[in-house]
Write a structure and sequence with these properties.
There is one protein chain. By secondary structure, the protein is of the alpha/beta class. 45% of the residues lie in helices and 20% in strands. The protein has eleven helices and eleven strands. Strand 5, helix 3 and strand 6 form a beta-alpha-beta unit. Helix 6 (169-190) packs antiparallel against helix 7 (201-217) and helix 6 packs across helix 9 (244-250). The termini are far apart. The structure holds ketopantoate (KPL). Ketopantoate is lined by residues 98, 179-180, 183-184, 194, 234, 238, 241, 243-244. Pathway: Cofactor biosynthesis; (R)-pantothenate biosynthesis; (R)-pantoate from 3-methyl-2-oxobutanoate: step 2/2. Residues 3-143 form the Ketopantoate reductase N-terminal domain.
Length: 297
């Protein structure tokens, strides 16, 4: 396949190297146009991959079968809307990011649109991307045109296992959102790695009570207990990880809070709920963000 990877951060570099290893033709696409981009990845089994890829070639883009979007949630809709006119009508667009709300921002898209969530864990160490732990990528259709593309899961699975197809990807997205609503802002509040959050059981329960109430009103089958079990399992399996939100706060970058807790609060409001503990954490993260934005001026 011919594949353009939009966004060459940690996840983008992991996909670029994995897809090329599998024999696909790949290019990177960067916000600031460059003819080349490089990937410097240490795989979970300790292999160092150092490769250069072509980048920002509009002809390659127009011939691509897949646009794999690995940007942060808040970058997605603007970037995809800018590239959409350059894509062929059959080019599938796959969004892989934390949080929800980008589909609403994008609105109707002519191309097949797919949404995905991933549990691959990676971090930047200087100029190197350390692919800390292999995970699972769940993908599924986000519009009618995307519904026939289940074979894509098989193709991607060969490059970077595991990849699973879901006809109803929204349920997987909501469950991942719930985990991110618990772990990400809590890790900022306590300034700690994911595993250190296991002691805050009362806070976890309070957050999950509110999240489950919103999810049930949104038509999802869930309970506070099952969300707590899921969040605790992820804290255990990613115990040594620093959450992406805490990494962003420490590096004074914009976080994905608007697409994680912010999305939950928007749905809560639409359902007549207030979710006060989630709101408190949302404001805590927003305050930290605005503090360093003010410092920059
Ligand atoms: O997705 C994550 C993130 O850090 O954004 C979790 C699941 C919390 C793992 O760190």
């Amino acid at each position: 396949m011919k594949i353009t990877v939009l966004g060459c951060g940690a996840l983008g570099q992991i996909w670029l190297t994995a897809l090329q290893r599998q024999g696909h033709e790949v290019q990177g696409w960067l916000r600031v146009a460059q003819p080349y981009c490089s990937a410097n990845v240490i795989t979970p089994d300790g292999v160092t991959l150092n490769q250069t890829f072509i980048a920002n070639d509009p002809l390659f883009l127009s011939e691509s079968d897949l646009l794999l979007v690995t940007l942060k949630a808040w970058q997605v809709s603007t970037a995809v809307k800018n590239l959409e006119p350059l894509l062929s009508s059959g080019c599938a667009i796959l969004l892989l990011h934390n949080g929800m709300g980008t589909l609403e921002e994008l609105g109707a898209i002519a191309q097949p649109l797919l949404n995905g969530i991933t549990t691959h864990a990676a971090r930047h160490d200087d100029t190197v991307v350390v692919h800390v732990a292999a995970g699972v990528t769940h993908i599924g259709p986000a519009n009618a045109e995307g519904a026939t593309l289940s074979d894509l899961a098989e193709v991607l699975h060969h490059a970077l296992p595991d990849v699973a197809w879901h006809n109803h990807i929204a349920s997987a997205s909501w469950n991942k959102l719930a985990v991110n609503c618990v772990i990400n802002p809590l890790s900022v509040e306590h300034n700690c790695q994911n595993g250190d959050l296991l002691v805050h059981r009362e806070q976890i329960a309070l957050l999950c009570d509110e999240i489950a109430e919103v999810m049930v009103r949104e038509g999802e089958h869930t309970s506070s207990e099952s969300l707590q079990d899921y969040a605790i399992a992820v804290m255990q399996s990613t115990a040594a990880n620093t959450s992406s939100m805490l990494q962003d706060i420490r590096a004074q970058r914009r976080t994905e809070i608007e697409y994680i807790t912010g999305y939950l609060l928007r749905r809560a409001r639409a359902q007549g709920l207030t979710a006060p503990e989630n709101r408190r954490l949302y404001e805590l993260v927003k305050n930290k963000e605005s503090w360093y934005e003010r410092e920059r001026i």
